[in-house]
Amino acid sequence: MKAFNHATIHAEYHALYADDLFVRLAAWDAEQERQMRECMSDRDNYDLDGVRAVVVTWREVCPNGNAHRVAQAVLAERLAEDASARTHHVLAGRSFVIAIEFEDTDEGTREANSFMERHPSVGVLEVVDGRVILAWKEDKGEPVGPIRRMLCSCCGAVTPGRQWRNRDTGYGLCVACIDYCAKRTEPGEFARTYGHRGVHYDVLPQGSAE
Q1: CB neighbours of 171 closer than 8 A, spacing ≥ 6?
Q2: Contact at 8 Å (CB) between 156 and 148?
Q3: What is the DSSP-derived secondary structure letter of residue 201?
Q4: Do residues 125 and 161 touch, judged by C-beta distance below 8 A?
Q5: When comparing pLDDT for 176 and 4, which is higher?
């Protein structure tokens, strides 16, 4: 039996205090996650880029915190539901994660500039196809292979694309089959199966492929 004296009582007190503190912190994290998810589930106020903006904010404020983790999880869930969403952008042979996008209009440019003033960790990656694409300044990009003529793994049509590690060599996905395959694939599984839109499929017109 443990002897009760000043030292052991002091140690037990601090152990109980620490346990209580951890329980309270876990409860706080759970409540914060519940509130964030409830708020961000309002799609009228939080479209895809609205969720991306929350991720940018918390990544700058507290990159290792619970709020950043929750925001990233919500973004991943939203992207898994939308096969049309572009998560990466290829520039100069490298693939970059898209932080957020704006329309290439006068208003969109003002919004992009305002966003970058508030969030110095992101900058313009490229303005193309009516899109102002912002990426993380620290992102150096991942090398990607050349665009090639491939066979659609769904319909067999010839289509331009890049090889994805989870596809058999020479097989990709044509634009006409994107929605069809997305509707028949579990959320989250589509990207693991076909890669990233704009990187591995739906890339460039046929004439640009090798």
Answers
A1: 150, 151, 152, 153
A2: no
A3: B
A4: no
A5: 176
User: What are residue 91's phi and psi, to 5 degrees?
Assistant: -145, 130
Q: Which among 112, 52, 121, 58 is positioned nearest to 85, based on CA atoms? A: 52
pTM of the complete model beyond 0.85:
no
Q: How does pLDDT run across 61-117, given as a tens digit for each residue?
A: 888 888 999 999 999 888 888 877 889 999 999 999 999 999 999 999 999 999 999
3-state secondary structure of 202: coil
- In this structure, the strands spanning 148-152 and 171-172 are parallel
What gap in Å lies between CA 110 and CA 121, rounded to an integer?
18
Q: What is the DSSP letter of 197?
A: B
CA–CA gap between residue 69 and residue 30 (Å, rounded): 12
Residue 95, phi then psi, degrees to nearest 5: -100, 125
Nearest alpha-carbon partner for 94 in 174, 196, 205, 171: 196
Quote the CA–CA distance of 23 and 38 in Å, as a whole number. 23
